[in-house]
Amino acid sequence: MEPPSASPRRGRVHWQGSLLTVSLLIFWSPSIPAQPTIESVPLNAAEGNDVLLLLQNPPENIFIYIWYKGKSAGNNNRIVSYTPQAQVNDSGPAYTGRETIYHNGSLLFQNVTLNHTGVYTLQISTILGVTQIAGQIRVYQSVTKPSIQASNTTVTENEGPVTLTCLTSHAEISIRWIFKGQILPLTERTTLSQDNSSLTIDPVRREDTGEYQCEVYNPVSSNKSDPLNLTVTYYDSAPESSGLSGGAIAGIVVGAVAVVAVVVALVYFLCIRNTAGYDAF
Questions:
Q1: Number of structural domains, the chain?
Q2: Is the pTM of this model over 0.70?
Q3: 50-100 confidence digits (pLDDT tens)
Q4: Which of 24, 94, 204, 208 is the most core-located residue (most Cβ within 10 A)?
């Protein structure tokens, strides 16, 4: 008869053996290589700067790199190709002289313009076949100072709306409004146009008095307009007095009494003086 402890021991050995098997499977499982990708450095570029389309995780045993402008790998869109083994590059019809291909397949653009904005395709040929991946360049202009045009700069409180318009020569930009140096909070009396270029205040109130600016911006730059001063005039809402106040009336009475007292004293003095003169004769 087996001892009572025999069965648990066999179970423990079986569990340890299973763990060893799983460990070996994990150890011998082939790792999945990371897929090649293209990163734009920087992500957003100002016009006139350089941009690098950086190839990350390239495959092994590469025969040739070929860069194309656009999504299509047609020959007319070919910019440049590079053969690593021979260390030879060849320019294509889409080459402009601003592109430089590196031995690792990355492509540098120098002094970019707005026309460089778009998608670029890299074709990689290896012993396993052909792989195509895409990258994108985004180029923006540095924005210039905008200006503000107002329907009126001096208005009366609660009498008609005021519209401020931000004027800029740039497209594909964002606009925000600034009041007294702070981002303008929107209320039920303020309305923005769809592109934020126009600000309407209706009705206008005295607290709307102050300096307004508009700021235009894109991912690489921003610029503010000169301040525009809006003046809101208003009438004093306190009711006008229909008569003199009690203090004013009291002052008038006191003044009149004082005048009368002076006059009486003067007359009395003159009478006494005349009487004294007659007695002397």
A1: 2
A2: no
A3: 999 999 999 999 999 999 999 989 999 999 999 999 999 999 999 999 999
A4: 204
Q: Are residues 60 and 101 in the same domain?
A: yes
Residue with tokens 């003046």: 231
Last residue of a domain, one of 192, 212, 233: 233
Distances, alpha carbon 129 to alpha carbons 34, 50, 74, 117, 125, in Å? 16, 32, 18, 29, 6
Range of the structural domain that residue 128 is part of: 37-140
Reported as a single tens digit per residue, the pLDDT across 215-245 is 999 999 999 999 999 999 988 765 444 455 5
> Do the domain assignments include residue 201?
yes
- List, for residues 173-202, the tens digit of each pLDDT value: 999 999 999 999 999 999 999 999 999 999
In a domain, 214, yes or no: yes
Mean pLDDT within 157-179: 94
Q: Are residues 175 and 81 in the same domain?
A: no
Does 274 fall in a domain?
no
State the CATH number of the domain containing residue 200: 2.60.40.10
Q: Which of 160, 120, 180, 168 is nearest to 142 (CA)?
A: 168
